[in-house]
Specification:
- 60% of the residues lie in helices and 3% in strands.
- The chain has 118 residues and is mainly α.
- The longest helix has 35 residues.
- The chain starts with 19 loop residues before the first strand and ends in a 12-residue tail after the last helix.
- Strands 1-2 form a two-stranded parallel ribbon.
- It has one domain.
Length: 118
């Protein structure tokens, strides 16, 4: 049961602060974007890690602010981009390992024994 008259439940108190965009959420988005763009070159691991660590703190701040910090969408997109950067870096490591092993297996440097040696 509300103490306010009907129709006034959503009216803000004049001393309530205005909702503001979370700068941490914006930072998570930028770091996630950098991670996704540089992920395949293994440079995306550092910004992706920073984005994921900062995202936890930004989410805690948003919950504690009781709705006065906005930025849920940049936070979600930044976390998704950070994971894309990590997946791209892992893909680059796997592809590099496979190419390196194939190149090593094809190389002629090594002991080459004749066909009649047991």
């Amino acid at each position: 049961m509300s103490v306010l008259p009907p129709g006034l439940e959503n009216v803000r108190h004049p001393l309530d602060p205005d909702p503001v965009a979370s700068t941490k959420a914006r930072s998570v988005f930028v770091l996630g974007l950098i991670a996704a763009l540089t992920g395949f070159f293994l440079g995306g691991l550092v910004p992706a890690t920073l984005a994921l660590l900062l995202a936890r703190e930004a989410q805690r701040d948003r919950v504690a602010s009781a709705g006065y910090l906005t930025g849920a969408r940049p936070l979600r997109v930044g976390v998704a981009l950070a994971w894309v950067g990590i997946v791209l870096a892992a893909t680059a490591v796997v592809l590099g390992s496979i190419i390196g092993l194939l190149h090593f297996a094809d190389s002629r440097s090594g002991a080459d024994f004749g066909p009649n040696v047991n």
